[in-house]
Amino acid sequence: MDLRRLGARAATLALVAGIWFWPVPAGLTVQTWHLFAIFVGSIFAVVAGALPIFTASVFAAGAVILSGTLSPAKAYAGFANGTILLIVIAFLVARAVVKCGLGERLGYLVVTVFGRSTLGLGYSLFLVDAVIAPAFPSNTARGGVLYPIAFSLAKAGGSNPDEATRKRMGAFLMFCGMASLTVSSGLWLTAMAANPVGAEIARNFGLKIDFVSWLVASSVPSLLALATLPVFIYKIFPPEVTKTPDAPSEARAALRKMGSLSTEEKIVAVTFLAMVILWAMSGTLKLDSTAIAFTGLGVFLATNVLTMKDIAQEGEVLATFIWFAVLFSLSAQLNELGFMGYLGERLAGALGGLPWLGAFAVLLVAYILMHYLFVSQTAQMLALFGVFLDVGVKLGVPAGILAFSLLFATNYFSAITPQGSSANIMFAGSGYLTQGELYRLGAIITAFLFILHLVIGTPWLMWVTR
Amino acid sequence: MDLRRLGARAATLALVAGIWFWPVPAGLTVQTWHLFAIFVGSIFAVVAGALPIFTASVFAAGAVILSGTLSPAKAYAGFANGTILLIVIAFLVARAVVKCGLGERLGYLVVTVFGRSTLGLGYSLFLVDAVIAPAFPSNTARGGVLYPIAFSLAKAGGSNPDEATRKRMGAFLMFCGMASLTVSSGLWLTAMAANPVGAEIARNFGLKIDFVSWLVASSVPSLLALATLPVFIYKIFPPEVTKTPDAPSEARAALRKMGSLSTEEKIVAVTFLAMVILWAMSGTLKLDSTAIAFTGLGVFLATNVLTMKDIAQEGEVLATFIWFAVLFSLSAQLNELGFMGYLGERLAGALGGLPWLGAFAVLLVAYILMHYLFVSQTAQMLALFGVFLDVGVKLGVPAGILAFSLLFATNYFSAITPQGSSANIMFAGSGYLTQGELYRLGAIITAFLFILHLVIGTPWLMWVTR
Fold it and tell me: Could you tell me which of B373, B281, B342 has the C-alpha nearest to residue B43?
């Protein structure tokens, strides 16, 4: 083993031990503090390159239980979480879309319109996402629609999830998929489950946020992000293949060669369309998105579009399931034990005396940075939005500006870590992106979106909420 | 698709619809009745060959939720079950034991002693299991020890989980592994989690069951089963390779050729031994077996004995995880909604007027047959043992005989379906056995053990509980 990795492991152990044996801050239980040590340690191990995220999570699961920090039931709770299961099943569904050739066909269709450059393909993902977003209250389900398209576009460009070709187009497109969801989710009130809940909480502060007022407030920063983020990612993380002037005509030729839809493609097209429609209406009809995915998967299996041999190759999905469920459980418990609220209140308390604009900026930065500890956007919003809004208003920050800013941040900070949103997981787990790239790019685009919202969005919010 | 399968699917649909629209029996809710329809339908689909168990479970998950029969939280609860997670992690741990070569070495060692015939290898599994059983309150964890040995024995015999060679030795050995657990678990009070709980319940009926009185009561039927079951399985499900007179000397030669333990084998040997010791002491030290497995897996990953590439090939473990968790949740809910108790009481009520020996036999048969509906031995014991014991005593059956008989049945009926015990899952999911074989052999050996216990065990119980 190389020395760098050994050093990173020693540093991880030192960090965990250092926090573990540090005097427990007043207001926290020993149990909460120990959970914090293990959780921070596992995130640090991944960022520092000491362990892959799967290994770090497996150790964390063992450690929290064997040390008596969490009960087994609490540590394993994430495995039964419907959203996490949705990711698992959506991965298998995506495999069917790709396997039968429909993904390729969709990819070629997109290429005929946007395919003159890899950047064009990136924009096409952002556009498709933004257009379908208001109908999708689950951004994870929306990721389940975007992912097979991005995957097929990469494949069509000769980019596979291996070291040799992943950076040709795939790595760029996968990160565009994740980044796109951060923007589309903030654009519409109904594009992410936490948005309407946040609007409801804001009502306690005398704010009335509906579909239209949300759209007005989000329009300027979100549309600006939509216009600039793909090209920004393109600059900081350029694909190896950039110009593909002949791609549209090649794609047309390939489409002609593919001929009409095969039986398998028709089955997948009809089933997948039905799933998309049901996912979009799941809020209205009160249908469980995961159960819709289960049923669709069942259709693919019963019609032999997917076979048990295909499933047998999806061990990476199992790995993703395990690490995400474990980290999700730990983060949820950290929150439930009051650690998050404690941190928020401590931070807010330190801000007394600042002018409102300063307090506003610091609160926002703190809210965003704390997302390093959360494995769910909705969980952080539920845990901290009310606290931060309350503190900010007491410090003189106008409620409307702060509320919208925090709710938008709840969307645009989702890519700050690969596990920061369940909607990321398919892209992060695609094999096209390394953990190092995910953390680095996640931090950069979150900073980019923060500055964009602060500099352009805040004056706009001051004007629309005046 | 062949007509047979199409017919089986039509029959499944007809069965589900038939039960679904049947007038709901008094004493049950509509919800319970619908859950029963879906659960029976998915088991029937597997037995009739309409769908693989994975597909049937995936449909069942979608159906129970979309029809409003179960809430998503209840339908997904099984995914967070510690025992099910133990199976998942034990599968990955077993992979490490096999991959590093230690499994092969252990296999050769067993062969040098028992290897003159495949039947001898079968007996060696039963013996190892019976000897280590009193230290293992989790028969699933014990399966995690036996499975890599059985797998390595099969591999060493040139038998892989494919159609061409699976029946050479592997299919026989895997079923021996499952069958062995049905016997070893009943032999000792502490060999299965439900045994001491059952003894506790029996206390309400004036019975005092401790380690020694359990062993005395179980000794005759269990040791007889140990002596006869391997040869019985050998007769009804013969391996293609039976005599291997040169195998012991070949194994010794192979061991010499392997030389001393490699670094990886040492890591696995020490870690696995530590896991086995901790599993055995988990009851005393109050350690979670699953967390022990998680930690062991972490060691294998951190030392590169297992890599992420190995995990990526374990898609079948994901499939097993999903189908078992779904069926487990459905069965647990069927029980929680009172269906099982209802059935038990109905059956018992019909027995009034029978002589005690007749009532005893019918109660026992009913208890065993009802295990077709249960996806956990402990759950059935908790749900029905008290009810059946109560009814039997009222009908004049001696409490001691009935209590022991039901508790022994709770162990020996575990292989009646592949999902009848979490301890089965690794063997059933090994790829060596088809669903058809599992159901057929499961039914036959359960009948064999029932008759053995009834004919030999009952007189013995009459004598020891006199």
Answer: B373
A-B Cβ pairs (cutoff 8 Å, strict): 152
Q: Are residues B118 and B264 in the same domain?
A: yes
A319–B58 C-beta distance less than 8 A: no
Gap between the Cα atoms of B365 and B194, Å rounded? 19
Q: Is residue A429 part of a domain?
A: no
Chain length of chain B: 466
Rounded to the nearest 5°, which phi and psi values hold at A183?
-85, -50
Structure tokens at B444: 């036959």
Q: Given CB atoms, is B58 within the 8 Å cutoff of chain A? A: yes
DSSP helix/strand/coil, B117: strand
Please report the residues numbered 290 through 329 in chain B whose beta carbons come closer than 8 angstroms to any beta carbon of chain A: 290-292, 294-295, 297-298, 301-302, 304, 308, 311-319, 321-322
The 3-state DSSP class for residue A107 equals helix
Contacts of B311 in chain A (CB under 8 A): 54, 315-316, 318-319
Distances (CA, A) of A162 to A55, A93, A170, A433, B158: 21, 22, 10, 10, 33
Distance separating alpha carbons of residues B378 and B421, to the nearest angstrom: 9
User: B245 Cβ partners below 8 Å, 6+ apart?
Assistant: B116
Nearest to A315 among B65, B301, B313 (CB): B313
Q: What is the mean pLDDT of residues B12-32?
A: 95
Range of the domain at A22: 1-75
In Å, how far are A403, B88, B106, B287 from B279, measured between CA atoms?
51, 16, 20, 8
Mutating which of B51, B54, B76 best tests the A interface, going by the most A Cβ atoms within 10 A?
A: B76
- pLDDT more than 90, % of chain A: 57
B64/B138 same-domain check: no
pLDDT score for A463:
94
Task: Please indicate, yes or no, whether residues A180 and A302 belong to a single structural domain of this protein.
Answer: yes
How far is residue B393's CA from residue B228's CA, in Å, rounded to a whole number? 32
In this structure, are B23 and B90 located in the same domain? no
Dist. CA A389–CA B117, nearest whole Å: 75
Domain total of chain A: 2
pLDDT bin (cut points 50, 70, 90) of residue B438 is very high
**What CA–CA distance (Å, rounded) separates A466 from B161?**
70
Coil, strand or helix at B129: helix
- Of A297, A317, A337, the last residue of a domain is A317
pLDDT over 70 (residue B9): yes
Judged by CB atoms closer than 8 Å, whether chains meet at B308 and A52 is answered as yes
Predicted confidence (pLDDT) per residue in B334-354, tens digit: 888 988 788 777 877 788 778
Question: Region A321-347: what's the mean pLDDT?
Answer: 86
Q: What is the pLDDT of residue B335?
A: 83
Phi–psi pair at A68, nearest 5 degrees: 75, 15
Same domain (yes/no): B29, B94: no
pLDDT for the residue numbered A372: 92
pTM over 0.90: no
